[in-house]
Amino acid sequence: MVRITKQAPDRLVAMRLEMALADARLAGRMLARRPGFALLTVLILALGIGANTAVFGVISAAFLRPLPYRDAGRLFWTTEYFPHFHRAQVFTPEYVAWRDHQTAFAALEGYGISVGVNLASTGAGAERVQAAHVTPGFFEMLGAAPQIGRGFDRHETERAAVISDTLWRGYFHGDANVLGRAIAIDGEPATVIGVMPRGFVDPGAPDAGLWLADAVKPGSAQPGRAMGFLGGVIGRLKPGVTREQAQADLARITRAMDGAYPAPWSRYHAEATAEVIPLRQELTKTSRTAILVLAGAVLTLMRAQQTGTQLPGALNNLPDIGSRGPQGGIGGSSTPPPPSAPQQGYGGPISPQPGYGAPPPAPQPGYGQAPPPPPAPPQQGYGQTQPPQQGYGQPQPPQQ
């Protein structure tokens, strides 16, 4: 019976550690003999690790990390696709009809095209910033609230602006009394009413420095020449409502608006289709190409690493391959190599083993067995001299 003591696991760990250290020393000596190969291997590993980190970062941000909005799984990007223009957009009359007559969304808010504006304020000079145009309930729909002040009210009587944390800390130097401060945006007066928290990202304008609640301007809600269009509409689905149900609901309202537009917009609108897409899918549609490119680069680096680690070994074997002349190697000599000396074994020399095509050696007698009989004398062939035979009457050799 084998008794297992408490020291056995410790010995096993020590043996494995010693083997790992021995392997590390062996690898170090091998790399020291070939510094060029070692540098190439380290470079390929560094590039591979960097590319893997970059790919994982993109995949994590695009597919794994949740969006920075409350209950982001219920947020959907809604739009109309116009085959005549090969683009997706939502006319302001269409958005108003969706907002007032839809039954699938708890909130439906739009945003316009962000543009650069000239910001000026007393004592702070002028600066060019990116302005986002949204509808009043945009922040509430996303589940985001300003860290200072308030968001937009649907019944604002004056032009109000919400600024980003970056603009507040940079342009306004983190002024705690920024609320109510008068500013000028492209020469038009406005008032700062809130500061968004650090890290907030507008899904329609990621680089926005301030927001204005004027995406739907007065007079643009009716079909006609004064109507405008939105860059997109984001809605929060009601609990229990599916994407297919929401898309069918918006399609119903869209078809009811076909006859409301004047020519030629009525013809263009009749071809349009309403689309409801998960917000994450819409935000990451431009990242998919980058992910595929980075993934291909990683695979290429991995293949190069495998080739780079195998090629030096193959090159080092070329002298051995060239020395095999008798077997048809390149650069070899036709002179056969000298015979090797017999190997010394226990109790005496070891006889060389027969090569390919050689007759096998004669079997040796074992213990208690008789030795094999001697070989028979060769037979005389035809035409050869036969030895004289003792015939009748010839003298016989003397008997001993």
3D structure, described in words:
Residues 320-334 have low confidence and may be disordered. With 400 residues, the chain is α+β, with helices and mostly antiparallel strands. The protein is 35% helix and 19% strand. Helix 2 packs antiparallel against helix 9 (287-316). The longest helix has 30 residues, at 35-64. The two termini are 75 Å apart. The chain has a domain at 72-283. Strands 1, 2, 3, 11, 12 and 13 form a six-stranded antiparallel beta sheet that branches. Strands 4-5-10-7-9-8 form a six-stranded mixed beta barrel. A two-stranded antiparallel ribbon has the order 14-15.
What is the rounded distance between the termini?
A: 75 Å
- Radius of gyration, in Å, reads 45 Å
Overall form: elongated
Number of strands: 15
* Beta-strand percent range: 15-25%
**Low-confidence parts lasting 5 or more residues at pLDDT below 50?**
320-334
Helix % is 25-40%
Report the average pLDDT across residues.
79
Number of helices: 10
Q: What oligomeric state do the depicted chains represent?
A: single chain
Largest sheet: 6 strands, antiparallel
Order of helices and strands: HHEEHEEEHEEHEEEEEHHEHHHEE
Alpha-beta classification: alpha+beta
